From TrEMBL:
GO process annotations (BP): branched-chain amino acid catabolic process
A Pfam short name: Mito_carr
Gene Ontology cellular component annotations, sorted alphabetically: membrane; mitochondrion
Encoding gene per record: SLC25A44
GO MF annotations, alphabetized: branched-chain amino acid transmembrane transporter activity
Species lineage: Eukaryota, Metazoa, Chordata, Craniata, Vertebrata
Location relative to the cell: Membrane
Domain of life the protein comes from: Eukaryota
Name of the molecule in the record: Solute carrier family 25 member 44
Solcar repeats: 18-100, 107-210, 220-302
Keywords attached to this entry: Membrane, Repeat, Transmembrane, Transmembrane helix, Transport
PANTHER family found in the cross-reference section: SOLUTE CARRIER FAMILY 25 MEMBER 44
């Protein structure tokens, strides 16, 4: 009889692709709505000099809420929703790469490592221009300027509507940097997210496997998968946060050199400057990763081809 502790991984060829994409878009949208405020807070914490504006994640949350209301926590959100496209490209690349690597190795660690890195490469090529625009929108606040560009108010003194702000930021980026400006920090993004993704998947499967032996046989797989996701996210965040801080500064402050940005950060704030925004990153990653893992594993189960449903044990 099959040991229920053995976690069965649903591969690409087992899926009903139509269900997979329809359910996937809806799931991704719900996740983005729930974690976007912490993404905005993390970005502001990483860009600020020292603790000139905010003293931490909770302090930033309260100050933004007081100054701009709930909408202030969602600056740049509409633009950021276009990353739904890159999200679908990510999961497709990940699953197809796993299938390809399986012809050469049956090691789940190797398949996860290669597929995670490859998926991130494809996704970041689509995401970076969207990130550049949305990050500049995140930096818009009443009072002191945080980023390179400032959205201009309307002649009557009122604010500019959401997509009016987006157009204004896009024009300023084009005037300052040309089309290359939309890929500012592209290399830094690759150096951040390819390792992050490549590390996350193997650690996720590793933690899930270890927890499966610690938990009772009757424990549903989805429980320790939900726990292993945040553990993997925290591990990956700690390892890649230094590069994430540098990436954010390159994109928002318009710097052209990763090396010079690194040296300036160390000179101004010391080694601890490389850990800025880590708590906000982990806080945002924990609920989002639980939702992603539970959602993604459930999504794959819902998308399983009908003839395979009875052969699986969860």
């Amino acid at each position: 009889m099959e040991d229920k502790r053995n976690i069965q991984i649903i591969e690409w060829e087992h899926l009903d692709k139509k269900k997979f994409y329809v359910f996937g878009v809806a799931m991704t949208m719900m996740i983005r709505v729930s974690v976007y405020p912490f993404t905005l807070i993390r970005t502001r914490l990483q860009v600020q000099k020292g603790k000139s504006l905010y003293h931490g994640t909770f302090d930033a949350f309260i100050k933004i809420l007081r100054a701009d209301g709930v909408t202030g926590l969602y600056r740049g959100f509409l633009v950021n929703t276009f990353t739904l496209i890159s999200g679908q490209c990510y999961v497709t690349t990940y699953e197809l790469t796993r299938k390809f690597v399986a012809d050469y190795s049956q090691s789940n660690t190797i398949k996860s490592l290669v597929a995670g890195g490859s998926a991130s490469l494809v996704a970041q090529s689509i995401t970076v221009p969207i990130d550049v625009v949305s990050q500049h929108l995140m930096m818009q606040r009443k009072g002191e300027r945080m980023g390179r560009f400032q959205v201009r108010g309307s002649p009557d003194g009122r604010g500019v509507v959401a997509f009016g702000q987006t157009k204004d930021i896009i024009r300023q980026i084009l005037r300052a940097d040309g089309l290359r400006g939309f890929y500012r920090g592209y290399v830094a993004s690759l150096l951040t997210y390819i390792p992050n993704s490549a590390v996350w998947w193997p650690f996720y499967h590793f933690y899930a496997e270890q927890l499966s032996y610690l938990c009772p046989k009757e424990c549903p797989h989805i429980v320790f998968q939900a726990v292993s996701g945040p553990l993997a996210a925290a591990t990956a965040s700690i390892l890649t946060n230094p590069m994430d801080v540098i990436r954010t500064r390159v994109q928002v402050e318009g710097k052209s050199s990763i090396t010079l940005t690194f040296r300036q950060l160390i000179a101004e704030e010391g080694p601890w400057g490389l850990m800025k925004g880590l708590s906000a990153r982990i806080i945002s990653a924990t609920p989002s990763t639980i939702v992603i893992v539970v959602g993604y594993e459930s999504l794959k189960k819902l998308s399983l081809r009908p003839e395979l449903v009875d052969s699986r044990h969860w």
